[in-house]
Amino acid sequence: MIEKSNVDHTTWHTDDKTKPLVQIKGLTKKFGDVIAVDNVDLDIYQGELFCLLGGSGCGKSTLLRMLAGFEDPEAGTIHIDGMDMSNVPAYERPTNMMFQSYALFPHMTVEKNIAFGLQQDVMPKDEIADRVHDILKLVELEGYKKRRPQQLSGGQRQRVALARSLVKEPKLLLLDEPLAALDKKLRKQTQFELANIQEQVGVTFIVVTHDQEEAMTLSSRMAVMDAGRFKQIGTPTEIYEFPESRFVADFIGSANIFEGRVSEDGSDHVLVSTNVGEVYINHGQSVAENKQIWVGLRPEKIHLSITSPKNTGPNQIMGQVEDIGYLGETSIYKVRLQNGQIVDVTAPNQRRPMSRTHSITWEDTVFLSWEPESVMLLTS
Q1: How many CB atoms lie within 10 A of CB 25?
Q2: Lowest mean pLDDT among 157-166, 204-213, 365-374
């Protein structure tokens, strides 16, 4: 019986008394001389929708396959619900895996595809029928149970594959690029559907994806991976607003990054001398004076104006519009500074223009400014 979850997603990952459902310690996997996963540690809690995010070859799918039992690690341990998985074969683990290709049986109906795993477990027919009915209702495919996969849209096939993975009620569901086969518009819609289904059933999801927007939309927490290691683990807000390195700042979304040195380390602020001018940061982070660091600015945090500011000071630069990208809801401006560096600025198009041209156009001289709290201080 598929039941609604009572998990409180606002507190689970901050409760020190909560025991992790998944505990990974020192996990390492090599393919010849290539280290695919490099001595990683990770705790994942009951009810999380956790995303592994990274580019091709970063190790995220290899990590997922080790959790599933399809790959054996060179070193390290995996515990699921307190049980050591070292000698547990894939078919005996409390996990299920949803593949990118969906792997549906083309000769079977939707109903039979979903029931197949339960039949293999020799479950009573009445219980199979009840579970299949419940899961079809959950994924809103009750009217499609007699159809075959080729009679369904891509989004419907994706939901059949999800239903087949969930119907066995695993403790942990592993999803490898689950939305990759969908077009952009359907993928956006399905992201919310997937998150809503996960919240209803309360099963812990681990999702592998290379799509930043997908990870930000889906996850309660996420890990950014590169070269087999975790660069940062946190909530989407923590990863985006408070990246711990230039790699993470640049990988998640867009970031303008300036190199500089700390010229003043105050109790409630840091002043950085950069190649584009003085940058004032009021995070209160303590950084040694004269230390080389980098500061990052998201394009949407920068104010763009054709009017010169009344007061001079830090957090202000001037440049010339070199290019404009009109995206409908937003416009992207590429501004060339006096030192030749290009800065990206994103501005919302909140009002319909009175004419067919931009109020700010190519080759205009513009002034950029930003708030002290909008700057990301990057020490590595």
Answers
A1: 14
A2: 157-166
